[in-house]
Amino acid sequence: MKLKNNSIALFGTSADPPTLGHEALLSELTKIFPKVITWASDNPDKNHQIPLLKRTQLLRILVKKISHPKLELVQELSSPRTIHTLKKAFQLWPEASFSFVIGSDLAMHVPKWLNAKSILSKVRIAIAMRDGWPISDVQLAEIKKLGGKIEILPFTIPESSSSKFRERPQKVLIPKELVPLLLEENLYGLADNRK
Ligand SMILES: Nc1ncnc2c1ncn2[C@@H]1O[C@H](COP(=O)(O)OP(=O)(O)OP(=O)(O)O)[C@@H](O)[C@H]1O
Ligand SMILES: O=C(O)c1ccc[n+]([C@@H]2O[C@H](COP(=O)([O-])O)[C@@H](O)[C@H]2O)c1
């Protein structure tokens, strides 16, 4: 992958909660991009289990754990709609070239996002292959048809998801640094399910 010095990877997540998959993805991105920006957001298509403020707190703990000079949490980018996130990103870094990072499970959804065509004219879509979620040529063609440019990231993230943790909260599914806050506030019922 050829990247310019002004490349920025943008990675939004509902972080409900952040998982080992989010940790692996953020760490891999720091090996490739000169700058990696993350934030926690609400997703218009999902019901979140805990408030955005708490999810942001959890993501902040994860970013601190990774503690990489290229990685930063910029919560002001948070919006349920990517088009609004991008407007803020262009204000903050007017000279940057952006890659909007998604897992391969989201490839089929991007063409349905609000103002998808406008989003795809502003940023490249960088796809992280998610174990169990292959992408088809049809999905790629749908994005390209709307003018999108696609980068397939050169790594695969092991199977892991927030919903799996929410269904059955287990410490082994999340970064261990999140556990104290989850127990303290009994988020996701982890304190009732001490494994
Ligand atoms: N294990 C993973 N591998 C690759 N991409 C991932 C992984 N987990 C999350 N992502 C990507 O990170 C972004 C944010 O995902 P999100 O925070 O919704 O996690 P999730 O595990 O998919 O959540 P949920 O299970 O609640 O749907 C999405 O682009 C998603 O595709
Ligand atoms: O813009 C949209 O219409 C849109 C709809 C659903 C999701 N997104 C974005 O997709 C990213 C991942 O969302 P999620 O909930 O899978 O973590 C996050 O940055 C969201 O803001 C964007």
TrEMBL record:
EC numbers, comma separated: 2.7.7.18
Coiled coil (residue ranges): none
Listed GO MF terms: ATP binding; nicotinate-nucleotide adenylyltransferase activity
Chain ranges of the Cytidyltransferase-like domain: 10-168
Enzyme class: transferase
Keywords attached to this entry: ATP-binding, NAD, Nucleotide-binding, Nucleotidyltransferase, Pyridine nucleotide biosynthesis, Transferase
Pathway: Cofactor biosynthesis; NAD(+) biosynthesis; deamido-NAD(+) from nicotinate D-ribonucleotide: step 1/1
Substrates-to-products reaction catalysed: nicotinate beta-D-ribonucleotide + ATP + H(+) = deamido-NAD(+) + diphosphate
Function: Catalyzes the reversible adenylation of nicotinate mononucleotide (NaMN) to nicotinic acid adenine dinucleotide (NaAD).
NCBIfam families: PRK00071.2-1 (NF000842)
Stated name of the protein: nicotinate-nucleotide adenylyltransferase
Organism annotation: Prochlorococcus marinus (strain NATL2A)
